[in-house]
Amino acid sequence: MNETEHSHLMLERILTSAQKLFGHYGLSKTTMNNIADDIGISKASLYYYFKDKENVFIAVAEKEQEYFVQEMKKKIDSTNKSELVLIGYVDLRLRLLKKLLTLGKFSQGNYSEVKPLLATTMRKFRLEEMKMIADIIREGVNRKEFSVKQIDKHAEFFINTLRSIRQMTVTDYTESGTIEISPEKYRKLIQQSKMFTELFIKGISV
After folding, report:
1. What is the pLDDT of residue 109?
2. Are the CB atoms for 158 and 82 separated by under 8 Å?
3. 0.90 cut: is pTM over it?
4. How far is CA 162 from CA 18, 116, 193, in A?
5. What would the pLDDT profile of 87-127 be if each residue is shown by its tens digit?
6. Which residue among 12, 97, 129, 175 has the highest number of C-beta atoms inside a 10 angstrom radius?
7. Given this model, what pLDDT does residue 173 score?
8. CATH, domain range 54-204
9. What is the dihedral of CA 192, 97, 107, 169, to 10 degrees?
């Protein structure tokens, strides 16, 4: 095994461990020592790959985003109707939100620390999302399912509206001081997101 392969495998071990620990303890209660101990390396070795746990969390979030993108590509490449692919996107996107909130168990303090880093990652991810939605709409137009002239603007509107719905739902801190989404709020979020998606699809369908 060469140095590059060893570095890649170590990085995967770190992210797998961090994903497990964040899921159990959240960002605030997980330490770099916890991660190093879990995979049996020194803290110094862990710092060679990441300068702090916030950057580890960002890497874990990006890994979750990559999984989301791969799953969406499968849906886009399928023979399903474009409207079903859009509905599938909404379902996967809500699952991603719930997973990131579970991994973070953000408190007001640690969220303010990780927010600038997460914002950069989310901006890149949002651009990728808009491209995917534009591709879905474009395929719908090619299949004579949709009638849309300004595809990119429709994709941006779709992404931004769903983002606004999510932000309005996930705004409160729990009694323990963490940002979480209750089962009731999650059901409401699903309902509102699907309602908007149905209206959107109806508005562009032939």
Report:
1. 64
2. no
3. no
4. 29, 22, 6
5. 999 999 999 998 888 887 776 566 777 778 788 898 999 99
6. 129
7. 54
8. 1.10.357.10
9. -10
